[in-house]
Amino acid sequence: QVQLQESGPGLVKPSQTLSLTCTVSGGSITTNDFSWSWIRQPPGKGLEWMGVIAYDGNTYYSPSLGGRTSISRDTSKKQFSLQLSSVTPEDTAVYYCARGDTYYSGTYYPYWGQGTQVTVSS
């Protein structure tokens, strides 16, 4: 059974870089059946897909974030990380990591971390 857990600071100052790590238990992040995504939910709003790293290390990001997103991985530690630069208070959200399972009909997310609250404030 797969488990994911987010970790990182809960408070970030404006203009700084938000950094989070997702640790995966069970399975492998290099298995080509799956990808690994970061998703966030601002207060009172819906889920926003931020980006993904595929099994081979290729990354794809939501253009709505203006190129501020970077996702990397450490396969030996079964971890993948998020860096969001130049943050503002609008980046305050609960941040989730999730496994993406892609089919012809679309991508589904059967496993999520519990989420971690990140507040951007001076």
Percent of residues in helices comes to: under 10%
User: Which class of secondary structure composition applies to the elements?
Assistant: mainly beta
What overall geometry do the principal axes of the alpha carbons give? Answer: globular
Distance between the termini: 40 Å
Which stretches are poorly predicted, pLDDT < 50 over at least 5 residues? none
Helix and strand run: EEEEEEEEEEE
- On the 0 to 100 scale, the average pLDDT is 96
Number of helical stretches of at least 4 residues: 0
- Per DSSP E runs of 2 or more residues, the count of β-strands stands at 11
Largest sheet: 7 strands, mixed
β-sheet strand percentage: over 45%
**What would you report as the Rg, rounded to the nearest angstrom?**
14 Å
